[in-house]
Every structure is written in structure tokens, then in C-alpha cells.
Amino acid sequence: GCGNSALSHDLYELGYTDVTSIDFSPACIAAMRARYARCPGLRWAVMDIRALAFPDASFDVVLEKGTLDVLMVEETDPWHVSPQAAAAMHRVLAEVSRVLRPGGCFISITFAQPHFRKPHYAQEAFGWSLRHAACGDGDAGAFHYFVYVMRKGQPLDPRDVALGQRLHQPP
């Protein structure tokens, strides 16, 4: 879900010249292709995050910024996520795990606080470790956002395993 964000181009300008961006919207991808046609290392594809069309172990890094939040937008109680939303999140994360190479890194940037998001990420089936950090400028009126980093092939901390197991228990 790259949307019309300049993040892909910003990464390109920083020297990451092999960047693949996806979005569900054909119009969005067409606009991004046109906007950044001068950047040959930027690739754009129309794709559904629930069914990635990439081969297994294709990427060293998968980065998402707010895309997973869309899966939770209709949830009315973040403490008790519907089975449909939990299944959709699991499906997407399984796809991310599948396309990551061993040792690869999944980075998720979101406003979702750890007590709401970590249970989704902390699934042993994904085969990754889990870390997170709160970010923000320290201004009392500012919203904090969170960066989650999952490393493929590293074990989950036992406390995170327990969080993941809690997700599948009835409320």
C-alpha cells in the first residue's frame, strides 16, 4: 500500500536503488510510475497485500507504513478484534513472512500501540523475532508512532509468544 507517498523515492535518493512498491489501486500505481519514471530502480505493481505475487524468499526487507492499519479500520474494540480482522492480519503477515529471505527484516510503522499490535506480529508461525520502539518528538501534544522490527529466522521472546497466543483466545 505505497499510496502516493514519496517514501519509495526518498529511499531511492538515499541510495536504496532496488525498491519495489505495491498498491491495490491501478490509478495510484500508474501515477507513481509516471511521477518517478526517471528512477529506473523503482518498480511499481498493482497487488493485493493478502496475496503477494512474489516468489518465496524474494526480499531482504519488507517495509509497511500504515498499510496494516487499513485492516483494523472498522474494528470498534481494539482489545477484542473480530475474527475476520484477525484472520486478514494473519493472512497478510504470513505473506510477508513468506516473501522474506532468511535473515530478512520486516519493518512496520504505525500509530498502533504495542498492546494492540504486538499480538498480531508475535506468532511463532511467522518465524521471526519482534522488537519495537516508540517514536515522536517528545512534545506532550504530539502523537507517538511505533516502529516494529521483525527479523526472519530469529526466535520470539517467550513473553511475545504468550502475547501471540492470547490473540487466539476467546474474549
UniProtKB/TrEMBL annotation:
Keyword field: Methyltransferase, Transferase
Gene that this polypeptide is encoded by: Eef1akmt4
Keyword Transferase in record: yes
Transmembrane regions: none
UniProt entry tagged with the keyword Methyltransferase: yes
Family: Belongs to the methyltransferase superfamily.
All residue ranges annotated as the Methyltransferase type domain in the record: 1-107
Gene3D superfamilies per the UniProt record, alphabetical: Vaccinia Virus protein VP39 (3.40.50.150)
GO molecular function terms noted in the UniProt entry: S-adenosylmethionine-dependent methyltransferase activity
Protein name: EFMT4 methyltransferase
